[in-house]
Amino acid sequence: MIDKEITIEDLVDEYPFSVAFLQKKGIKCIACGEPIWGTLEEACLEKNFSQENIQKFVDELNTLNKTQS
Amino acid sequence: MAIDINNVLKTFGITDVNQGVSTGNDWFDTNGTITSSSSPIDEKEIAKVKNATMEDYEMVVKKAQEAFKEWRLVPAPERGEIVRLIGLELRKYKEELGALVTYEMGKIFQEGMGEVQEMIDICDFAVGQARLINGVSLQSERREHRLFEQYQPLGIVGIVTSFNFPVAVWAWNSALAAIAGDVVIWKPSSKTPLTALATQKIIGKVLKDNNVPEGVFNLIVAKSSVMGDNFLEDKRIPLMSVTGSSAVGKRVGSIVGKRLGKTILELGGNNAVIITPNADIKMAIASTVFGTVGTAGQRCTSTRRIIIHESIYDQVKDSMVNAYKSVANKIGNPLSENSLVGPLIDVHSVNNFRNSVAKVQEEGGKILFGGEIMEGKGFESGNYVMPCIAEAENHYEIVQEETFAPIVYLIKYSGEVENAIELNNNVPQGLSSCIFTLNMREAEKFVSAVGSDCGIANVNVGTSGAEIGGAFGGEKDTGGGRESGSDSWKIYMRRQTSTSNYGAELPLAQGVKFDF
Do B223 and A37 touch (CB under 8 A)? Predict the structure, then answer.
């Protein structure tokens, strides 16, 4: 289960599909070939997404995860 | 050299599952999550490493603190002797460690060995520097007083390295830190933990044979949830040296800055080559192709932009495309002698490459060569790409970013060299730059106060592949840090100004009277 506190490193490792999903939303998880530091929430806030939007991303990622598995 | 990777792993005692925490010779059985290291060559798992827990981290920091108390008392030339012996040991394992770098990270074997050579070179440099940790003697304004500056050991140095130079960057930092009397805690990239383990095992013998205390050279393989912000916030670590993206560097700078700690930040580049009408074009092309496709474009100093005068633009463009056609036949397994370009580190990097190729076209650019993902026999991992040349303009959003992959943008300039320099400087990053010209005025302008704003500004030498003798680093979003040669050693030390009174009077500075 993905939540907004997950680190980007864990997100990239455990849910690799999320990298492309978040990139489409303008959030880069990978820079210089390495995961950026911090949590999903921090990465979203950096791009000025609201808490509402962040929760929406989390829900969409969890739905995507179900599709993947 | 025919490389049997199983023999290489055996040489370093790397088994299916490995311990990821060491304080020198002691290795610790940790209970953290498991990191699986796979090769970008074929995506096969090489081995697993047990990550550290918070308790392991705490144990290592305490060990390092204890070791520092002892290590700082060892005379610097004696510390240099340990670094000399480490350099000798690295020489013995140059091929094996170089092969492991290649297998775990994907750079070609020549570059893998080159990386180990850099480790050896910085050890040699540090040995000499160990006898030259010099302060200055100054003239005191007070009679019978002596004024001088000296450098003292700093403490624990945190070193965070990236996958693209998985071992050399550790050596740049730790060789200087060691002669400075510091102790190090190394957090390697989670993509390349095995090269870190191998390095630690190579130096372990030297440490043991010479009774170097446990805790001087520490290694912790850990997830960022265990060793992330808490590592940066840790006041017991006065200096953090971090190599990575500008995004990571900004976070590091902010967190370490809040506690007024010191940082060495080696971050992203957006490195340009300027080719003027006065260039030796043959030389420029040969050098630039190495800069663009070497290490599959995954060096901080890889050439990202080529700024070409309009009068020679078509000639340079055609020469670049022809050179890439030759390189196209030499993409493949980096352990093979025939390969010049290996794979990207993983599928995410491949996707970034693909996105950049698409984005430059969306913004109006034109692909002149490459940009495809390689398919077929030998490319099953999906990590190999055909290096790309694109025509673009400097202001494009994608050109302003660093794509960590082999995509280079050709940008036209007209008029005088000042216009090319303006384009060179007009990006957020400021790591490496170069000009190809045989015209002295152009060359000197480029390296003058109104020239390149980068940390590295070369003349008739490409952007990629620095020697260890010079200070390495860059400005602006590249972070401002300097490591490796020149006087970079100073940041690993605590600068101290001393005034000593050997007279019987007590005069105050500036002639102040304070009688009571």
Answer: no
Residue B465 is encoded by which pair of tokens?
């592949």
Contact B286, B303 (CB under 8 A): no
Give me the count of residues in chain A: 69
Closest CA to B266 of B467, B494, B475, B447: B475
d(CA B270, CA B72): 39
The minimal CB distance from A31 to the residues B164, B247, B355 is found for: B247
Residues B437 and B451: their CA atoms lie apart, in Å, by 14
Q: What is the ipTM of this complex?
A: 0.93
Strand locations in B318-455, DSSP E?
366-369, 388-391, 407-413, 429-430, 432-436
pTM: 0.97
- CA B450 from centroid of its chain's CA atoms: 27
The whole-number pLDDT of residue B1 equals: 59
Interface check for B349 against chain A (CB to CB < 8 A): the answer is: yes
> Are B51 and B33 spatial neighbours (Cβ–Cβ below 8 Å)?
yes
Count structural domains, chain B: 2
Q: Are residues B14 and B91 in the same domain?
A: yes
Q: Say which DSSP state A27 is in.
A: -
The number of helices, as runs of H, and strands, as runs of E, in chain A is 4, 2
Tell me the pLDDT tens digit for each residue of B150-196.
Answer: 999 999 999 999 999 999 999 999 999 999 999 999 999 999 999 99
- Rounded to whole angstroms, the Cα distance separating B335 from B440 reads 42
- End-to-end CA gap in chain B: 81
Determine the 3-state secondary structure of B358 from DSSP.
helix
Would you say residue B138 lies in a domain?
yes
Q: Is residue A1 part of a domain?
A: no
Whether B280 and B260 map to the same domain: the answer is no
Q: Which of B118, B123, B214, B300 is catalytic?
A: B300
B451 secondary structure, DSSP code: S
- Token pair 């490792």 in the structure block, residue: A13
pLDDT (tens digit, 9 = 90+) per residue, B388-423? Answer: 999 999 999 999 999 999 999 999 999 999 999 999
Task: Say if B253 falls within a structural domain.
Answer: yes
Catalytic residue flag (residue B300): yes
